[in-house]
Amino acid sequence: MRIPCPFCGERGVSEFSYRGDATLQRPDAGSENALAAFVDYVHLRDNPAGRHREFWQHTGGCRAWLVVVRDVRTHAIEQVSAARGLSQTVDVQMVEV
Q: What angle do CA 18, 86, 78 make, to 5 degrees?
């Protein structure tokens, strides 16, 4: 799999580290069921098939945190954005790898 970094260009996946699900929302610590919500947030993960948003870090390059939208069944990457501000986006065509 190759990931197009918005700052360095396309690189092999060995230069990147997976950092988790980019769809999760941190629970409100002041809510009535905060403990249960944090247990779910920290320990429970879905295992979706298909299109998914993930955090990746370009650890072997510019060290930027990225949001990668990819199909987890085929590893085809649809979009890559810088996580900070989500202002720099690289749209790529879905290509199976």
A: 60
Model pLDDT, residue 84:
85
Exposed, middle or buried, 42 (CB in 10 Å: 0-12/13-18/19+)? exposed
pLDDT (tens digit, 9 = 90+) per residue, 3-58?
Answer: 999 999 999 999 999 999 999 889 999 999 999 999 999 999 888 899 999 999 99
Side-chain half-sphere CA neighbours of 15 within 13 A? 18
Look up the pTM and report it.
Answer: 0.79
**Rounded CA gap, 92 and 75, in Å?**
13
Say which residue the tokens 């290509």 belong to.
Answer: 95
Q: Residue 87 half-sphere exposure, CB side, CA atoms within 13 Å?
A: 2
Looking up tokens 């970094």 gives 5
| Alpha carbons within 13 A on the beta-carbon side of 26 | 2
